Structure prediction request, 342 residues.
Amino acid sequence: MVKEEADAPEKTQEEKVQKPVKELVEKEDIIQKELVEKAEKEDIIPKENKEKLTKKEDDIPKENKEKLTKKEANNTKINLTATKIFAYFVIYSIVGYIIEMIFALLTKGVLESRKSFLYGPFCAIYGLGATTMIIGLQKFNKNNYTLFFGGVFIGAIVEYLVSWIGEMIFNIKWWDYSNMPFNINGRICLMFSIVWGILAIYLMTYFNPKIDKLLNKIPSKILKPITAILVVFLFLDWIISSFAVQMFYVRLAKQKKIELKQSNDIIEKYDKLYNENEIINKIVNTLFSDETIIKSFPNLKVTTKDGKVVLASEFFPEIKPYYLKVFTPKEKFKIEIINVQK
Prediction:
């Protein structure tokens, strides 16, 4: 007992000495870790150390790597905020407008409008298609094969629904694939569905990650109000454009004596609004003239009562449905493009 009591003070003294030493070692370890992290960020890690780190990563079991990949995929889903989704819609609508303008220039030799609405440079089918794909393809984002088939499936559904809504609700026919092989009601066809699949691979593996990097650099305080303003502008543009097109149909039916497929109730409703209200009459004639509609929507199609689908611009030969003619494409190529559009 006396010996144990004598040894006790010695142990206490040893602990007192060892404790600060231990703390110093721990601090040194923390400092070293911070230096390594800083070196990794600044890319100043020696080549030998980098090779060691790479080997360590290669030593990770395949199962663990797959788990990490799944976690990363889950994180991608979580990052799809409402602001980001609306930002995607706006960005890809603008990208689509640019693509369509270039396509028109190369195939028809003209600079013409390819926008969905009267004022903004937006091609909504691209914005809707890309946004739907980004959300819907999260489960297909395993490899290029799953992305392709997912893109074909989602793209076809979006294209069919947009075509149906435009025709049934807004009396607008944006495209018609009736002469294309393997089409369904002229709304979708095999060729363009395959194009959607190819675009899905490019979108998810290359283009959208770059858009994400760009959006992540913009502070949330700036991104949110800008996106909100653009979405409100898009919505108002859509409402105004729908009204303008309906007014155009009224003029087409009354002045050109064209019997349209649209119901008589809608024609009568807008006919009263157009003829009985002088203020609206002046606004419509000034802002939504035939020339404005034809130049804004050169590929706008109408369906007559006998079922014929006709370009609206054909009823106005005096109006050029483009801004500028750059060159005349070869006749054979021109005929092929016209057949695809019909």
Observations:
- The longest strand covers residues 301-303.
- The radius of gyration is 31 Å.
- The chain has one domain: 83-341.
- Residues 1-6, 71-78, 332-342 have pLDDT under 50 and may be disordered.
